[in-house]
Every structure is written in C-alpha cells, then in structure tokens.
Input
Amino acid sequence: MIQRIGTQSYGFPQTWLGRVVGGLLAAALLVAAFFFLFIFLVVLGVVILAVMLRLLWTAKKVRAQASHDILEGEYSVELHDDEIRDGSAADITHKVIRDANTKLD
Output
C-alpha cells in the first residue's frame, strides 16, 4: 500500500459515511436552492401583477377623463324667422358663432 504524504483531497469523500453525509448535504442544498427560487418567482409575480394593475388603473382613469372632455352627439342650429329675414348668411353665421362663444364664457 502506498501512502502519500502532504497531499490533500478536496473532492467527494472516500468513506461510506462521508459519501452519505455529502449526498444529504448536496440534496439539502438543492432543496434550499429550489425553495429560494420558488420564493423569488412568487415575489416577482406579485410585483409584476401590482405593476400591471397600476397601469390598468391609470389607463382606466385616463380613458374616463378623456370621455368627460369630449362632447359627443348631434346638434343643429335653429334660427328664428326674423333672423333669417333680416340678414345675409354670413351675418347669421357670425351671430351664431358669437352667441356660442358667449354661452361658453
């Protein structure tokens, strides 16, 4: 039998008990790694969900605000008979625009 002096082995243990303990430690490390990976993915999913909900909420508020700023519908300007008889089409148009601007103020 040859005995080596001054050499060290840092690889896998050579004894039966060392191999069992090393295998158990490797399995425990693998389980811990999957556990932390799972926790990381759950936290990442919650953060992504929170960001998406925030974006949807903001988009909903913007759409609601935009719909309040837009006046939808049909309208027509009805002139009285005396206005039609008294002026030309250009005069009537200017009067209608002026009246509309006064109502907005």
